[in-house]
């Protein structure tokens, strides 16, 4: 009797499992049939929206596909969508620049004037001749690498030049150099500069050992015109003049920072110049990591695109 009960129990168990499997298979959805749609048949507005998600590095190849695609990439709507597809760019434009929006969205996308460092070659990674102007002789300056004679560079300093260990070293005598930043050429518009008046933030890193007698200073000028003798051409200026002698500061990297705000309309150029006067050769002064940025409403917004 017990053997019959056991067989019947096993049979019922198998039937139960079979019913459950059948119910599971019955409720499974049949695979959908997906049809392919040619992009060539899409309306131009929809094609523009879809292509705006293509990474910018692929755009040159995509432009070779056909004349229609090339026309999409040359249109204003495409670059407007391209900027607004990136959440960080959209937040920056809507939250920091409004009501002043870029007129040329393509230029704004690639130049990114509102987030990048406007100083070229800030630490000497690209050599002496890149970016800087030397009124006397460029051979009065050198580019060094590493921290053999200085304290280790802080991470914030290294980040200015993408981790580059380079720095500038002025030689004996008076050494002068400068850069002039054309804000309109960098992608800003008169409406943004005069209407929103973003803060101009400047920072510079330097070090001078106490056993060298060195004078180091830098000057920043906000200009209406690049070259003008007019008295009102300089809107505002700032000069930093530390003095390092035998009892000076220790051999540590120091950051100097200043900010211009509410300077009024008319800003079109920024001139940054620095000078050292040394009694030793090579100089103990080392300079790196100069940064000039324009910040909207005292905040910074950065994106990676």
Automatic annotation (TrEMBL):
Which Pfam family would be a valid example here? F-box-like
Q: Name one GO biological process term.
A: glycoprotein catabolic process
The record's SMART domains line, in alphabetical order, gives: FBA (SM01198), FBOX (SM00256)
Give the GO molecular function terms: ubiquitin protein ligase activity
* Record domain F-box: where: 36-82
Give GO cellular component annotations, separated by semicolons: cytoplasm; SCF ubiquitin ligase complex
Q: What residues does the FBA domain cover?
A: 108-299
User: Could you tell me the superkingdom of the organism this chain comes from?
Assistant: Eukaryota
Task: List the SUPFAM superfamilies hit by this protein, alphabetically.
Answer: F-box domain (SSF81383), Galactose-binding domain-like (SSF49785)
Fetch the InterPro entries from UniProt: F-box-assoc_dom, F-box-like_dom_sf, F-box_dom, F-box_only, Galactose-bd-like_sf
Among PROSITE patterns, the record links this protein to:
FBA, FBOX
Q: Which PANTHER family match?
A: F-BOX DOMAIN-CONTAINING PROTEIN, F-BOX ONLY PROTEIN 6-LIKE PROTEIN
The name this protein carries in UniProt is F-box only protein 44-like
Source species, please? Acanthaster planci (Crown-of-thorns starfish)
């Amino acid at each position: 009797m017990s053997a019959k009960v056991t067989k019947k129990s096993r049979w019922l168990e198998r039937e139960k499992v079979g019913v459950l499997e059948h119910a599971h298979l019955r409720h499974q959805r049949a695979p959908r049939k997906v049809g392919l749609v040619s992009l060539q048949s899409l309306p131009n507005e929809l094609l523009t929206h879809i292509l705006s998600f293509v990474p910018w590095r692929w755009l040159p190849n995509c432009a070779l596909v056909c004349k229609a695609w090339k026309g999409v990439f040359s249109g204003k709507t495409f670059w407007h969508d391209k900027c607004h597809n990136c959440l960080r760019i959209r937040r920056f434009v809507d939250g920091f620049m409004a009501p002043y929006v870029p007129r040329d969205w393509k230029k704004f996308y690639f130049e990114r004037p509102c987030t990048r460092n406007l100083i070229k070659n800030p630490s000497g990674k690209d050599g002496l001749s890149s970016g800087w102007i030397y009124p006397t002789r460029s051979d009065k300056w050198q580019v060094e690498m590493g921290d053999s004679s200085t304290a280790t560079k802080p991470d914030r300093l290294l980040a200015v030049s993408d981790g580059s260990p380079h720095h500038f070293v002025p030689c004996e005598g008076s050494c002068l150099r400068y850069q002039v930043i054309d804000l309109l050429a960098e992608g800003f518009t008169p409406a943004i500069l005069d209407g929103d008046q973003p803060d101009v933030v400047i920072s510079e890193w330097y070090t001078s050992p106490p056993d060298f007698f060195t004078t180091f200073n830098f000057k920043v000028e906000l200009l209406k015109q690049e070259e003008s003798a007019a008295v009102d051409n300089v809107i505002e200026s700032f000069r930093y003049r530390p003095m390092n002698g035998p009892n000076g500061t220790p051999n540590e990297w120091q950051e100097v920072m200043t900010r211009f705000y509410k300077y009024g309309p008319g800003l079109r150029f920024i001139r940054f110049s620095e000078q050292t006067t040394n009694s030793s050769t090579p100089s103990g002064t080392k300079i790196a990591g100069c940064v000039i940025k324009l910040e909207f409403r005292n905040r910074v917004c950065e994106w990676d695109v």
